Amino acid sequence: MMQSSLQLIDEEAEKKPDREIADLGVRRTERPRLVILGGGFAGLHLVRNLEKSDFQIVLIDKHNHHTFQPLLYQVATSSLEADSVAYPLRKPLRKHPDYHFRMAEVQRIVSGDNTIVTNRGTIEYDYLVIATGARTNYFGMDNIKKHALPMKTVDEALKIRNEILHNFEEALYTHDPQERQKLTNIVIAGGGPTGVELAGSIAEFRRYIMPQDYPDLDIEQSKIYLIELLPELLGPMSDEASAKSEEYLQQLGVDIKKDTKILDYDGEVVKTDQGNIPAKIMLWTGGVSGAFPEGLDDGLVTKKGRIKVGETGQVMGHERIFALGDVASIESKDHPKGYPQLASVAVQQGRFMAENLMRLRKGKSLKPFRYKNKGTMATIGRKKAVVDMPGFKFQGTTAWLVWLGVHLFSLVGFKNKLVTFTNWAWNYLRHDRETRLIIKDSQ
Amino acid sequence: MMQSSLQLIDEEAEKKPDREIADLGVRRTERPRLVILGGGFAGLHLVRNLEKSDFQIVLIDKHNHHTFQPLLYQVATSSLEADSVAYPLRKPLRKHPDYHFRMAEVQRIVSGDNTIVTNRGTIEYDYLVIATGARTNYFGMDNIKKHALPMKTVDEALKIRNEILHNFEEALYTHDPQERQKLTNIVIAGGGPTGVELAGSIAEFRRYIMPQDYPDLDIEQSKIYLIELLPELLGPMSDEASAKSEEYLQQLGVDIKKDTKILDYDGEVVKTDQGNIPAKIMLWTGGVSGAFPEGLDDGLVTKKGRIKVGETGQVMGHERIFALGDVASIESKDHPKGYPQLASVAVQQGRFMAENLMRLRKGKSLKPFRYKNKGTMATIGRKKAVVDMPGFKFQGTTAWLVWLGVHLFSLVGFKNKLVTFTNWAWNYLRHDRETRLIIKDSQ
Lengths: 443, 443
Hints:
homodimer, alpha/beta, FAD/NAD(P)-binding domain, 2 domains, 5-stranded parallel sheet, 4-stranded parallel sheet, globular, disordered N terminus
């Protein structure tokens, strides 16, 4: 009786190899198909603004979630839950009748066939938007790629969290003061916003959490180094912001090494042109390059791996292929080398592209992209932040509050805002970080 | 100049092998040393109640966090952030002057030497409390151990979340209906509280999330099976609770197979004495056994892997070794085979043990443990729960609200309570689960 209710298996069918599924399993409808590669800031904000469009929309990303990269450093330093900075990519367009998400890795564009090749099969497009973002750039230094920890994904941020906490645990088990030194030192490569924010957050962890959590360690011995190639931190920001962020980091006890070039790293010692630093952890925020997919003409890709794009968002020489966000270098008078690779640029380009694609469908002419600079900012610690707005610069507590507000407001998903706010309030009031958890096997 | 400020490395010291560190690096003080093995409910509640004791306290756990196991199923089913059900074990006794946590795996007790052997070295004790909990029991079925997914740790719960979501993604890429069936079927082995709660939660995910998230999948095809060896679910609970939970699960479309024995599982097909079920995922909640450390007399360990303990908490024949929680079988008239392996028993025993240890230090006689049964409960879904209190049983919305309140109240850490409440409120109001994230590499 029960036998029949269970599903029987056709042994024959079992053995047949699965043919590759056409168009990643997305069925053609009467709507023109728009394929979007990448669910970062540009891709997500494009999708969200296509709710009323008549496209069949296919979003492809190798993760099933959007990552709010500006807050990854807080995941890495035990301040925020990983899930708060991620947002499910199946969700943004629930009311659109023909929206499809596919988790796949893009391998190649075959523009002659209007086709994308992924690790899960191919898919045809009528319109294509490339928003594949940026990848960590090691500038050809293989040892660094092998031993340093990058921070572009949630998984990488969690790995940093695990490694830092794990090394502190490990430091309790050694007699050797030099080994202990290596285990408690942390080197951060790159003095841009990510490096500065990481350094500040780790320094606050050392100040507020470590003395209570690790009574058996000499906290003074643990050093945090921030290494920057150029003569100042936060290069693209104002001189005031650079100077103040340096002052803040020094207050928190960060060793800042400017004008210093990293030469090599073997997982034990960071070699620089100014001397060596023993450290089991080096966080790499040294640079990014565009994560362009293969298949485009070499002439279309800049030295920094970005795709050359006209001011309408169209890839040069392709009417139906667009690129935006970090991977795109949109031509403009103000920014001849492309707009800076910032979340705010990507968000504005996403919205802009939605409008242009809908104009295209209506037979209207495409508009040129105009960037509205709303300012840049970085936070170093409690009541320590720097903000550059057009014609208005400020630092300190107000800047910090502005930073908090802007990030909370920009965070994708209302639930994420609530959970993040809860964590921040708790951390602020209690000088605490309860997500100092090693979630992985105990080794 | 800068060279000098960087730390130089002594190449010689580098090469010396590290001697094993004595007592896991914990220095002896004038206080008698109490070593506690395990930071689960029993260990954590013991530690928390020793704030005013004169012991040197050393807590050893293989994770650096406590795990609130009753809510792991919500992590596994995308309802809660992983970090909300974990609590840092370095934190509970911040005000005690001589509290030490060590992340290490206990391997053996050498009671003749008053010593514990761990994977990180040995440590001497004056008093020892064994609170190592329970481990998943596969009843000797190696295939099941190899292919089924257990759920005792945060990491295991996250693995379940990743696998379920990943298989749904995978199902989009196949032509073969039987392969698709296997990818979307989920089998839950064990009809105790964990199995029932998992089945209910997955069934609600299928009902509320899948139709919107996976428009390309035929959701009706995805089946959820709950397999129980005995003729009823929730065996230890009342008949009313068993019957009602079954009714609720049927309403949610769970296929319940009682009186069914699982024989084998190869990762593709679950073999039972009533027929076969194709499924790429089998969650195993089939049973636990005590996770007793080696080194105790064989005669001290029961068939279920629990340590025989007198009513004062002392291990039989050992004056200074105690055991509590899931790993302990404390003798009592009401429960000749030991108290049930429940969080509430462990919490009460933790508190009880703190009192007894302090009595011991004052030369007072030890008290016998008395369990105060406050009831048991399980939740199946929205407004669907069952509660058995002594002399009072109820089900439905009230039971569900009681379940929510009790779990929120019991959750360790105020921040965790806040974040969990936020998630629950969101999930309830929006029929949503925003933590449906695959956080791992994209493969």
